[in-house]
Every structure is written in structure tokens, then in C-alpha cells.
Write a structure and sequence with these properties.
- The chain is α/β, with parallel strands linked by helices.
- It has one domain: Adenoviral Proteinase, Chain A (Adenoviral Proteinase, Chain).
- Helix content is 36%, strand content 16%.
- The chain has seven helices and seven strands.
- The chain has a five-stranded mixed beta sheet with strand order 3-4-5-6-7. Strands 1-2 form a two-stranded antiparallel sheet.
- A hairpin with a 2-residue loop joins strand 1 and strand 2.
- Helix 4 crosses helix 5.
- The longest helix is centred in the last third of the chain and has 19 residues.
- It is globular.
- The two termini are 21 Å apart.
Length: 223
């Protein structure tokens, strides 16, 4: 019997297939396509009139990890990364230039603070692993911030092995609101629940999968 993997939604530059959407229907790790879709939704629908935010797709982030500093400009130049105040990088722990990986975390650059914030829902530590340090130095130069600080951001710890992608999506939502309201990502700047990754509840994490399915359908997806 032939395997069917038809198109569910074609949204701007993101194509969602049945195999992608099925990841939202059970206890599964989210892939690049689902996260890319939601970042594109934020860019095109939620923050379409906001110039200071930039959401980098996981596919581009993975490419950036394996190119030289000069080559980074090929990817970041057309996105006007040097002119953005806050840049969101969903990170895959895959150390090879091909599909794979077991965990998502989040790196956010705050230009007003000249700081990279790192958010990891497994709480493996507040700092980026050493293998990513050279990438970070090249990235900082590519976005015109040669002198910078790295800080660990506070966020809720996931309580299973598969919801890291959902946590990344929620953290991006909260931090985008915080950035726009306070022009900063400092943990002391906001206590509002919708701006604070430490106040995301397990109930919201469970509900987010259905919320994403509802959004896909609302945008014309054939579920």
C-alpha cells in the first residue's frame, strides 16, 4: 500500500504535509517544518507591522552553524539582520549538516543590551554548550555586534522528552511580547504571565498542540 503524505497547508514559504501535522497529534518531537510554519505565521500575521523583530527559521539556523562568518551574510543580509533589535534563533542539537537531532532550545539576540539569551527547557545549564561558542562569535560579527554578553534565560522545565519544540514556541511568544514592551529581555523587566517564560503552565503546553492544529485549519489547512 502506497504511503500518502499529501499537502495540508501551503503558507507563504512553508509547506506542511500530513507527516508534519501528525506530529502535533501525539507525544512527538516537533520537526523543522512545524516550527518554521509558526515563525512565519508570527512574522506575516502577528508582527507584520513590527520592524524590530526577526524570526530565523530552523533550517537557516542549522545552515548558519556550518558556514563561515563571511558566508553567514548570504543568509542574514537579505533579512536585514543588522537592522533588527531582537533576533530569534531556534536551535537544534544536531551537530551535523543534515536532518536530525533530539532537542530544541532557543537563542535570542537583544541588540539594545548587546546580549545573547539562551533558553533551554531541559535546564542542561544556563550556558551554550562549548561546541556552539565558535558559531556564536561568528554570528555576533555577522549581525554587527562584535562585543556581546551571553546570559542564561529563565524558563519552565519540560516534564517529558518530546515537548521541547512546544516550549520553544511558547518561549518565543512570551519573549517577543517582552521585547516590544520593555525593549529588553532582562528577566527582571517583566512579571506579566504572557511575557514570562517561567509562568508557562503544563496545561498551556498540552493545549498548544491543539491550538496549532486549529491555527493550521483556520489558515486553510486540510486536516
Amino acid at each position: 500500500m502506497a504511503y500518502s503524505n499529501g499537502t495540508v497547508l501551503n503558507f507563504h514559504n512553508t509547506l506542511l504535509r500530513e507527516s508534519d501535522v501528525n506530529l502535533l497529534m501525539g507525544p512527538h518531537w516537533l520537526n523543522d517544518q512545524i516550527i518554521s510554519f509558526y515563525l512565519e505565521y508570527l512574522e506575516k500575521n502577528v508582527y507584520q507591522n513590527t520592524r524590530g523583530l526577526l524570526f530565523i527559521s530552523p533550517e537557516v539556523v542549522q545552515c548558519l552553524k556550518f558556514v563561515s562568518g563571511q558566508e553567514m551574510s548570504i543568509f542574514l543580509g537579505p533579512l536585514n539582520a543588522k537592522g533588527k533589535s531582537f533576533i530569534f534563533f531556534p536551535l537544534n542539537d544536531n551537530d551535523e549538516a543534515k536532518a536530525g537531532g533530539n532537542h530544541w532550545s532557543l537563542l535570542v539576540f537583544s541588540r539594545p543590551e548587546s546580549t545573547f539569551y539562551y533558553y533551554d527547557s531541559l535546564h542542561f545549564g544556563t550556558s551554550l554548550k562549548k561546541s556552539l561558542r565558535p558559531f556564536l562569535f561568528e554570528l555576533a560579527k555577522a549581525i554587527d555586534c562584535p562585543e556581546f554578553e551571553v546570559r542564561g534565560g529563565e524558563c519552565v522545565k519540560q516534564n517529558n522528552s518530546y515537548d521541547c519544540g512546544i516550549h520553544v514556541i511558547y518561549n518565543i511568544e512570551c519573549l517577543a511580547r517582552r521585547a516590544l514592551k520593555h525593549n529588553s529581555l532582562d528577566d527582571d523587566e517583566s512579571t506579566a504571565a504572557d511575557e514570562n517564560p517561567t509562568k508557562i503552565t503544563n496545561q498551556k503546553i498540552r493545549q498548544k498542540r491543539q491550538d496549532l492544529l486549529n491555527l493550521i485549519q483556520k489558515l486553510g489547512g486540510k486536516l
